[in-house]
Write a structure and sequence with these properties.
The chain is an alpha+beta fold. Helices cover 38% and strands 22% of the residues. A six-stranded mixed beta sheet has the order 8-7-9-6-1-16. It has a four-stranded antiparallel beta sheet with strand order 2-5-10-11. Strands 13-14-12-15 form a four-stranded antiparallel beta sheet. The radius of gyration is 20 Å and the shape is globular. Bound molecules: ligand 2P0.
Length: 343
């Protein structure tokens, strides 16, 4: 009996994928289950276009350990998280091969630009192909969530919602696309105010917040109303409504984290100056609002015609090291082998 020809991707057990970071407009902060990485709240994000992570993975029976290279250098600090993600893929495939993972970002890692979102989304998409798993996008989103919560959202492009879910096993906590990038092509201007890795990662920050912030329950109780408002703003392409609810969610998340013990202060002076500048622009009629994650970078979201003026205004602020402008992008996807990881 002749067996079916094995596709290349199975024979080499190698694949490469690209994913873009996403920026939450309605924020994720807090976990209801640490082991399964289930959130206490739902969240809503936009996937970016021109920032990316490219990740190549090769499973190889000849290897005796997993290895992880980031931007061409061994990164043993992140290896445990990467290996945990590989374990999830191996468990789905029923194999035990170790793997070599090579990843590259075209933006600073670990500084509040969602590198774990794009990184783990790219690894799941590449691993799914390399092991011939044929997982649905929903299953890929669930696996990505277990590696890093926000990675669940970077499986999809455009406007994306990640459901909190209620099931203990997490099978209903996954992302889904709400609206394509082209359906409302807003732009994002990122003001980079530090290129250092942040001192306190999101997981540690969320856990400290849950243990010590007196606002945790109010945060959980008020999230669904914010999601309802944001979904309506998207459906109506109502920029003002999206601006109001997004700034509210951002400031509420930071208020929650600031009230932890010790307080989590992710902003620097330039971040705050950028916030004032964005507010002044908006008061003067420019369609722009800000959002900030667990790091000092400010992301200004604007209508396309305002992007150049917003970028110019942020570039003038002392302490802004760089300004990156991007549109909204598509889903994580496989890329051809000839596109080099370090391209
Ligand atoms: C978000 N952040 O919704 C929020 C807002 C940061 C601030 O998702 O612990 O790196 O790996 O699930 O995904 C960053 O959190 O955290 C994040 P883990 P992750 O974008």
């Amino acid at each position: 009996m002749s067996s079916k020809p094995t596709p290349d991707i199975d024979r080499t057990r190698r694949a490469q994928a690209q994913a873009q970071p996403n920026i939450a407009l309605i924020k994720y902060w807090g976990k209801r289950d640490l082991a399964l990485n289930l959130p206490v709240v739902g969240s809503l994000s936009i996937t970016l276009e021109s920032l990316w992570t490219r990740t190549a993975v090769q499973f190889d029976p000849a290897l005796d350990a997993d290895t992880f290279l980031l931007d061409g250098r061994r990164d043993d600090g992140q290896l445990r998280r990467v290996a945990k993600c590989l374990d999830l893929l191996r468990a789905r495939a029923g194999v035990d091969y170790r793997a070599k993972v090579e990843s590259s970002n075209n933006f600073p890692t670990g500084a509040g630009l969602a590198s774990s979102a794009s990184g783990f989304a790219a690894l799941i998409v590449a691993g799914n192909a390399a092991l011939g798993l044929n997982l649905s996008l929903a299953e890929q989103s669930i696996l990505a969530r277990r590696c890093s919560g926000s990675a669940a959202r970077s499986i999809f492009g455009g406007y994306v919602e990640w459901s909190c879910g209620t099931r203990a096993d997490g099978t209903d906590s996954l992302a889904r696309p709400l609206l394509d990038a082209d359906a409302w092509p807003l732009r994002v201007v990122v003001a980079i105010t530090s290129k250092k890795e942040k001192a306190i990662g999101s997981t540690e920050g969320m856990n400290r917040t849950a243990d010590t912030s007196p606002y945790q329950q109010a945060w959980i109780d008020s999230q669904e109303a914010d999601l309802v408002t944001a979904r309506a703003a998207l459906a109506q392409r109502d920029f003002e409504a999206l601006a109001d609810i997004s700034e509210h969610s951002c400031l509420k998340m930071h208020a929650l984290a600031l009230a932890a013990k010790p307080g989590l202060l992710y902003w620097n002076a330039a971040t705050v100056d950028c916030m004032h500048r964005v507010r002044a622009l908006r008061a003067a009629g420019v369609p722009v609002f800000f959002t900030i994650d667990a790091g000092p970078q400010l992301k200004a979201v604007c209508e396309p015609q305002a992007a150049a003026a917003v970028a110019a205004a942020l570039r003038e602020i002392p302490g802004v090291l760089d300004v990156v402008e991007t549109g909204l992008g598509g889903p994580a996807q496989l890329i051809a082998a000839h596109q080099q990881v370090a391209a």
